[in-house]
Amino acid sequence: MKLAAVLSAVGLASAHTIFSSLEVGGVNQGLGNGVRVPSYNGPIEDVTSNSLACNGNPNPTSPTNTVINVQAGQNVTAIWRYMLSSTGSAPNDVMDSSHKGPILAYLKKVSDAKTDSGVGNGWFKIQEYGMDSSGVWGTEKVINGQGRHDIRIPACIAPGQYLLRAEMIALHGAGSYPGAQFYMECAQINVIGGTGAKTPPPSACPAPTPEPTPVSKSTSGTLLSPTTSFPDPASSPAKRRNLVRSQERKLATSSKVAGILNPQA
Ligand SMILES: *[C@@H]1O[C@H](CO)[C@@H](O)[C@H](O)[C@H]1NC(C)=O
Ligand SMILES: [Cu+2]
User: Fold this and answer.
1) Which residues line ligand 1 (CB under 6 A)?
2) Does domain 14-261 have CATH number 2.70.50.70?
């Protein structure tokens, strides 16, 4: 079992992913244009790291001077690619299929999206998509859907600049800490128009529609309560770590995930 785990870790070492561009209104804004892309596609696993906000050390990101205009209430699409050099959109160009887990999105209101580090308070979650009722994870949907991760920008938020943090979490190594793999980048957006009059936190907005039907116990045991599962980048490091640890304990005792953790078992 241990050997299998080691072998699978080696085999997967480079099978990661990057949110490498943002599509708005059907137009791809360009690789790393308005999205802080890293030089390496590896995950963040230390949930106490400042890099949990917008990636960074050990995957340094490139600054970009672009702030992308987005209409409040509009959908945008985070485009995930295995590497910055990946030009295709087949599953292997997105992320290794072993990487199963939820996909999420957060916003943070900032005064200058080009320079704000994203670290610290102010993040609010606008999406958490775990597993659908037939057992398909959010990451699988993206992997098999040309790397496309649709995110609705709430109509009710105030206009102005935001960091948009799109995230995929891979759970295949999440049996112990560290092990869950957090993949995230931040896009720099300027929310315009709409009815945006409210200010985050999200209590100001109607709760986002759950996507899809929240994970049910009958299909996934103790997995992924859709509201409380994964660490919010705004919460304290200790709280984030505890959240991940408790999640990992749940994962380790779930037979569904045991199959994911030990694909060869
Ligand atoms: C907009 O994105 C949401 C996910 O946030 C998705 O459920 C919905 O189908 C998308 N709508 C359109 C028109 O693409
Ligand atoms: Cu990986």
Assistant:
1) 75, 127, 150-152, 211
2) yes
Helix (H, G, I), strand (E, B) or coil at 125: strand
User: Where along the chain do its domains lie?
Assistant: 14-261
Question: Ligand 1: which residue has its CA nearest to atom 12?
Answer: 75
The residue with tokens 């709409």 is 194
Q: What token pair was written down for 261?
A: 């953790």
Pocket test for ligand 1, best of 70, 71, 75, 129 (most atoms within 8 A of CB): 75
Split at pLDDT 50, 70, 90, the class of 198 is low
Instruction: Enter the pTM of the model.
Output: 0.83
Between the CA of 116 and the centroid of ligand 2 the distance, in Å, is: 27
- The C-alpha atoms of residue 262 and residue 140 are separated, in whole angstroms, by 17
- The amino acid at 161: Q
Please, are residues 61 and 44 in contact by the beta-carbon 8 Å criterion?
A: no
For residue 124, name the pLDDT band (cuts at 50, 70, 90).
confident
Dihedral of CA 181/126/35/113: which sign?
Answer: negative
